[in-house]
Amino acid sequence: MVIAAPGCKLLTADFSNIELRILADLSGDRGMLDAFERGLDLHSYTARMMFGLSESVDVKHEKAPGTPATYRQVAKAINFGLVYGMSPYTLGQMLRIPKEKASELMNTYFRMYPGVTSWLRKARQQGVNSRYSVTVAGRKRYYSLPAVDSPDYRRVRSTVERKAANSPIQGSSADITKLALALLWEEFSHEEDWFGQVRLVAVVHDEIVIECPDILVHDVAPAMARIMRDACVRYLKKVKVPEPDVVISDCWEKE
């Protein structure tokens, strides 16, 4: 837990759905880009499209057929699972459904987002062929593969394919966060009234926590939101990126 110093507040913000926005931007999938453009909750939108549901269906509470999960939970598991290279077996375990049912759900998802499907396939293939993957900032992650006739080849290739699809997304998220930190520091350093008073106190994944005097809160909070969005749009050119909400509090801890 982080507790603000006397006379200060903590400002906390994270990048909204950053990994899925990166996936939408890299893949150029029109459906996913459109959902973000319209400001929709991507998980609920995905659930409605996957299951052909009307707006009258409460996707957050009604259970998907053949699963103990809600429609939205199913869509969310697949949306985020793709970022981590999830297999039908893993999805089945997560949702407590047979692997065959999980595979069916994933196939429905891929038909819905063909751009994502195509990008994932190309990313995996590039990892194997080029032996590296690239983030939006141009950082490369290198891979090695044994000889094709090696008994370990198929296992290692599967691991490389998973990492090659995951690393451009996770690595790009890190690129954006690091750029945001640099831009925030630049802002704090150049504002004479802020220098030495506004300071970074925590960074966890894509969440940034800043401490500043009470008197500066309403100047620093909008600057923080603007700068974090600027870091995103420096790299993400297709997907809509809103300014993050900045939470003002006396203490912070990672949930």
From TrEMBL:
| Lineage top rank: taxon | Bacteria
**Keyword terms of this UniProt record:** DNA replication, DNA-binding, DNA-directed DNA polymerase, Nucleotidyltransferase, Transferase
Question: Which biological processes are named by the entry's GO terms?
Answer: DNA-templated DNA replication; double-strand break repair
Q: Which reaction does it catalyse?
A: DNA(n) + a 2'-deoxyribonucleoside 5'-triphosphate = DNA(n+1) + diphosphate
* Keyword Heme among record annotations: no
State one molecular function term (GO).
DNA binding
- SUPFAM superfamilies on file: DNA/RNA polymerases
EC?
A: 2.7.7.7
Question: Which stretches make up the DNA-directed DNA polymerase family A palm domain?
Answer: 1-216
Family assignment? Belongs to the DNA polymerase type-A family.
Question: What is the name of this protein?
Answer: DNA-directed DNA polymerase
Q: Which organism is it from?
A: Thermosporothrix hazakensis
